[in-house]
């Protein structure tokens, strides 16, 4: 696969679903990928990337941002409270807001620095004990809590259980988002982004299908 293959598959999926062309944003997930591969995708003109670790992203993205204008960087992995400030300075969007303590830290730092990344609340749609995210039944209350803190909540994010049909989870996330008047849906990865687009994804997070298998560090 290549970047071009993926963008063309996204266009077809938008069309098949009767969605507006360009309504789905492709987040190229560059975690653990060698810098040459990331640079190759930047040189093709793509600017929206996802990383799942603050430390790793902080090690490579300041240099890429110096060389390429208009980088749009998304944090898609868990965020420890003590890395909140660093994450807010580096990322344009955070997809893993999942607890009141973190929401309060983001609100406080946003006041201090005068800006805030776009935020997505991660929902643990499969109710898996080992997975981050708020439970579906608790999402409404957490959205309200974030709104009371004036946080720019753009939507919801999920990572479906590995062994279940993802469409059920995408549909559930879309339903919870609609109920809470949220337009953004961060869902769909290499193996299922077309199904996510059919169910309303606005942001798909695609790594290995663009860059190839991840090479362990
Ligand atoms: C790694 C990762 C992805 C991308 O996974 P691929 O299967 O390589 O497309 C998407 N979302 C999250 C949260 C990830 O950690």
UniProtKB/TrEMBL annotation:
Q: Which UniProt keywords apply?
A: Pyridoxal phosphate
Residues bearing N6-(pyridoxal phosphate)lysine? 31
Family annotation (Pfam families):
Ala_racemase_N
State the source organism's domain of life.
Answer: Bacteria
Please name the GO terms that the record assigns under molecular function: pyridoxal phosphate binding
Sequence ranges assigned to domain Alanine racemase N-terminal in this UniProt record: 3-214
The keyword Acyltransferase appears for this protein: no
Where are the membrane-spanning stretches? none
Record-stated family: Belongs to the pyridoxal phosphate-binding protein YggS/PROSC family.
> What role does this protein play?
Pyridoxal 5'-phosphate (PLP)-binding protein, which is involved in PLP homeostasis.
Sorted alphabetically, which HAMAP family does this protein's record hold?
PLP_homeostasis
User: What name is this protein filed under?
Assistant: Pyridoxal phosphate homeostasis protein
